[in-house]
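Table S2 (continued). Query chain:
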Amino acid sequence: MAKKTVASLQSSSKRLTKAIKMVKSPKTGAYTFVESVMPPEFVNEWLAKK
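Corresponding output:
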């Protein structure tokens, strides 16, 4: 399960996007959220990774 981009950020003429995805812990089975700020073209690739 993954949430797609939630915010577009502007920083010194670079366009950045903040992406959040849910990751299930193998030990406890609980879900945690992993956040990352990156250029928009890398978001789908990052979300596809396990």
